[in-house]
Amino acid sequence: MSVNVFESLVRLPPDALFDLKRRYTADKRDNKVDLGIGAYRDDNGKPWVLPCVAAAEKMIHEDPDFNHEYLGIAGLNSLTTAAAKVLLGSDSEALTEERVVSVQTLSGTGALHTAARLILAARPDAVVYVPDPTWGNHFPIFNTQGLKTETYPYWDKSTKSLNMKGLLATILQSPEGSVFLLHTCAHNPTGMDPTRAEWEQIIQALADRGHMVLFDTAYQGFASGDLDNDAFSLRFGVSKLASKAPVLVCQSFAKNVGMYGERVGVFHVVMPRADTPKTTASSKATLTSQLNRITRSECSNPPAYGAKIVSEILNTPELTEQWKSDMVTMSTRIKKMRHMLRDKLLALRTPGNWDHIVEQCGMFSYTGLSKEMVEKLEKEHAVYMVSSGRASIAGINENNIDHVASAIHSVVSTFCASKL
Ligand code: LMR
């Protein structure tokens, strides 16, 4: 008789986002539109291989020394070093003073996972505060490690804007030394970022309370088209916070380089300034040894191919310039689609105010559509978006925008009429 040792396990529901992708792929309707997973599409609704990536790949393959050998445990040094400069700016004090430890990870998710393991090793009772709402995967990443998560208010549903009052109150009320996760830019799912003045207030409040900050940086350059502009919160945060406590940064190259499946990411720790450079060096060595243990036990060493492409882009001036222009191409097209969608809904006289679509930035719009409306959109109009009402604006183009706008108009009008 066989014994099912896994009998006690319960079946879990499918991942909401990837199940949406599956339903979209299986849909046979010609007019289907995918506004689900956050991945850039060009004006023909197709995935886009960035010209900087195509050029970098060519250069890599033409290199006579190209091979598929293992990387070191901490990953490709030319990638992690250049990635830190992209994040912090090449004039960063933390870099000049050699206070940054960087290790390659499996994209941004891997960086968050590494952060979770590190926090757990140092402070098993730490509570990680994430915004409400946040990227759905934040909870399982921390919780499966045994770390407790709480939320801080972020989105005011009634005004479709940032809930600064609630956010600041939670920073003040939470136990000193809590971990606060901030989305560096292009907040996922709301697309609503604090203004610079609001960031300054948030960071000051975090510094005053002695909290530790983890910046989740998945969209640098993707929100505004400018790497420096999109790094404002992070750089200001590092300048204010890293004198007292380490600042953690998770960096993904999935979106801004358009290499979703290659899983290129970096986890950085900016260490506080110590009394002597020798103490800093010793703390860095300890931290590196811990991070290497985490990586070695989980994937031995990170994947090389995508890392080589991104490294080539960041270390070849012409390719870096091409990359910057590619990010402008993506962010400009998305902004254009935001304006077109808002204008079409206004022209159709769709009930409600739609200005938030153009006030938000990055890949997503938190449309304000209810779960029931989203279900109807999928069922009756083949327009797919996340049940929270999050729409990936990158999925809209000039060929499908009329269908998207009239589908939203029809659904919203029906629900409004039923309430009369
Ligand atoms: C998204 O939020 O759609 C992306 O970040 C994809 C993912 O892995 O969830």
UniProtKB/TrEMBL annotation:
One matching Pfam family: Aminotran_1_2
Molecular functions (GO terms): L-aspartate:2-oxoglutarate aminotransferase activity; pyridoxal phosphate binding
GO BP: any one term: aspartate biosynthetic process
SUPFAM superfamilies found in the cross-reference section: PLP-dependent transferases (SSF53383)
GO CC annotations, alphabetized: cytosol
Family, similarity comment: Belongs to the class-I pyridoxal-phosphate-dependent aminotransferase family.
Name of the protein: Aspartate aminotransferase
The organism's taxonomic lineage, starting at the top: Eukaryota, Fungi, Dikarya, Ascomycota, Saccharomycotina
